[in-house]
Amino acid sequence: MKTEDFNYQLPEELIAQTPLEKRSESKLLVVNRSNTELKHDRFSHIIDYLKKDDVLVLNDTRVLPARLHGVKTETNAHIEVLLLNQYGNHLWEALVKPARRIKKGTIISFGNGELKVKCTEVLDEGIRHFQLIYDGDLQDILDELGEMPLPPYIHEKLEDQERYQTVYSKVVGSAAAPTAGLHFTKELLNDIKAMGIHIEYLTLHVGLGTFRPVNVDDVKNHKMHSEFYQLSKETALKLNQAKKRNSKIIAVGTTSVRTLETVYKKYHTFKEDSGFTDIFIYPGFQYQAIDALITNFHLPKSTLMMLVSAFASKEIIFNAYEEAIKHRYRFFSFGDSMLIK
What we know:
- By secondary structure, this protein is α/β, with parallel strands linked by helices.
- It has 2 domains: 3-63 and 160-340, QueA-like (3-Layer(aba) Sandwich), CATH 3.40.1780.10; 67-145, Beta Barrel (Thrombin, subunit H), CATH 2.40.10.240.
- Helices cover 19% and strands 28% of the residues.
- Helix 5 crosses helix 6.
C-alpha cells in the first residue's frame, strides 16, 4: 500500500484560514458507508443524525500555548521550541528549529528568563528532550510567553485564541486541537443531551504525529509517534452498556477513535486505562470500538486520510472529498465537517 494512493489535489483557496463566526454553521457532509450516498447539510443539524441512547465520545484535551521563541544563552541565536509531551517532573519532549544548533547541555531562555530549558537528550527529526527551569505556575508562564501552535498551513493571525479550543476543553496538554470538536457549541451539546443522547469524555493529548508528514513510500514503513491517552472508569462503563444494548458509539474526531480502538484492541472491551498509544490505522484495520465518526477534512497523504479510508473505504472517502471540493467546502483545522455513518 503506497502513501501516494492517499494523495489528492486541493485548491489552496479551500484551506480555511480563520474559524467561522458561528462554530456550528460549518457545512456537514454526511457519508453513508452502506449505500455510499452523500448528503449536504449544516453541522447545526448534526442532531438529526443521532438517536436516543447513542453515545457521543468527545476528547476534552486543551491546547497549550506551547510554541515558544527564545535565545540560546551562549550566542543569543533565535530558537523556536514547540513543547509536545510531558514525560516526567519538569521533563518535556519538544520539536526545535533550527535543531542543529541545540546540543546536549544547551540552555535556551524565554522572555526575561522567566522560563529556561536545558537540553538533556538529542533525538532524530528535530526532537529534543528538555528540563524546564522556572518558578511559579508553568501554565501562567506559557499563557504569558507562548503562542497557540497553529498548523503551518494557517497563515492568518487568530484573533481569539479560544477559537482553537473546543468549548468543552478541560485537561491541558495538547500541542494541537482535536479539530472535529470545534463545531460544537454549548447550546448544541445541551440540545443533544436533552434528546437522551449520552455525551462521554476521554482525553488524548495531540502530539508530534499531527505535525509529521508520511515521508515513506510504503505506508507500512511509517512510524507513528505516541500520544498520551486516558479513559475513565465511568466512560468505559457507559460505552460497555452501549455495546450491550446495541446503541451506536459515535467518535468525535480521529483522536477519540485512536483512544477507543487502542483500549478495545488491548482488552476486547472498554476499561479504565491510561498510557501512550502509537496505534496506526490504515485500510485493512478491523474497527471494533466505534459505529460512526465525526471528523474534518484531512491533508493529502496523511495518516488521518488513511484512518478514515479504513473506516469507510478509500473509494467512498475519495468520492466524498471530490464532492466536497466541487461544493467548495472549507478544509483542514478551521474547515467544514463530515459524518461517516
